[in-house]
Design a protein that fits this description.
It comes from Phenylobacterium ferrooxidans. InterPro entries: HATPase_C_sf (IPR036890), PAS (IPR000014), PAS-like_dom_sf (IPR035965), Sig_transdc_His_kinase_HWE (IPR011102). Its EC number is 2.7.13.3. It catalyses: ATP + protein L-histidine = ADP + protein N-phospho-L-histidine. This protein has 345 residues and is an alpha+beta fold. It has twelve helices and twelve strands. It is elongated.
Length: 345
């Protein structure tokens, strides 16, 4: 049997337009005069707002705006923008007939047909997604609050325990600084909805407590996002490096400074890698330590081979130098790359 060609439908057919308006009940479709007076109202608009066509035609569309938005002139701004630019888009809370609210993304357009001079507004109800997003933000804020409270409790317990054992104030201060760094790193992640963190932001937050040397710590590199675990690890590493520089390294000298550089690279398989360099200069001569301190052990454990990375600390006479090589691809990304490679074989 010879296949029949598809039946052609004229997109400009008035019957098609009417069917779309009648059946697209997930969308509110309305037309307005240039002053915002509503002239037509779709079944989707009735379903979304609770107003019937007879109730609302002849009213101004501003009644869909909250009182605060009307006071701010948002309805008038939308009309003016549409008349000036041909369209205006907004996402905001709107009012229903019963006083309830719904979150809608809408587009108001200027109809340019000579025989059809009006404004067309189309809105989609996105209330469930908006409420889910607000709930997620609420939970993240609660998580941040609980983490901060837990860290504060841990800090208090550690302080009281160590003080009772006559541990030096310097050691207690080191522990408090590390806990504060953890808290700041988690705060950055909460601000980013736990989708990772920008390396520039991590640097600024981690170096902020070291005000005495921050002006002499300069850094430069492209935009790089770290996963949540990598962001916390990098924050702790930076805290240890900065603390060491202030106590024993280049920042103990008036002429000493720290230079931080990093770069992002992609390998042949599409994996992303970060190379990060901390380099001190202008300080006292550096001697190789007789034992590995907490910072060195942290670097080796956090960025070591078991995590696919590499951390090297070099005690050059001119200043300490730390090089970190870190894969940025997540396990999920690596799986996709492996599957793609298998498919290409």
């Amino acid at each position: 049997m010879t296949p029949q060609p598809p039946r052609r439908i004229d997109i400009r057919d008035n019957r098609l337009a009417a069917a779309i308006i009648e059946q697209a009940v997930e969308y509110a479709i309305l037309t307005m005069e240039f002053d915002g007076t509503i002239t037509s109202w779709s079944p989707g608009a009735e379903r979304m707002t609770g107003y019937t066509e007879d109730e609302i035609v002849g009213s101004n569309f501003s009644l869909l705006f909250t009182s605060s938005d009307r006071s701010a002139g948002e309805d008038r701004i939308e009309l003016a923008t549409t008349l000036r630019d041909g369209r205006a888009e907004d996402s905001r809370w709107h009012l229903c007939k019963n006083g309830g609210r719904f979150w809608a993304n809408g587009m108001t357009m200027l109809m340019r047909d000579p025989d059809l001079t009006c404004l067309l507004k189309v809105m989609r109800d996105e209330t469930p997604a908006k409420r889910a997003d607000e709930q997620r933000v609420l939970l993240l804020n609660e998580l941040n609050h609980r983490i901060n409270n837990t860290l504060a409790t841990v800090q208090s317990i550690a302080e009281q325990t160590l003080r009772g054992r006559e541990v030096s104030s310097e050691t207690r201060g080191d522990l408090a600084g590390r806990l504060l760094t953890l808290s700041e790193a988690h705060r950055v992640l909460v601000d980013e909805n736990w989708a990772g963190a920008d390396l520039h932001t991590i640097l600024r937050k981690a170096l902020a407590p070291h005000a005495g040397g921050e002006s002499r710590i300069v850094f430069d590199g492209p935009d790089v996002r770290l996963s949540p675990p990598q962001a916390v690890s990098m924050a702790l590493a930076l805290h240890e490096l900065a603390t060491n520089a202030l106590k024993y390294g280049s920042l103990t000298s008036p002429d000493g400074a720290v230079r931080i550089d990093w770069n992002l690279a992609h390998d042949g398989a599409g994996g992303r890698h970060l190379t990060f360099l901390w380099e001190e200069h202008g300080g006292p001569a550096v001697a190789i330590p007789t034992r590995r301190g907490f910072g060195t052990r942290l670097l080796a454990r956090t960025f070591g081979e078991e995590n696919g990375g590499r951390a090297e600390v070099q005690y050059n006479p001119s200043g300490l130098r730390c090089l970190i090589h870190l894969p940025l691809s997540t396990r999920e990304e690596a799986l996709v790359l492996d599957l793609a490679a298998e498919a290409g074989e």
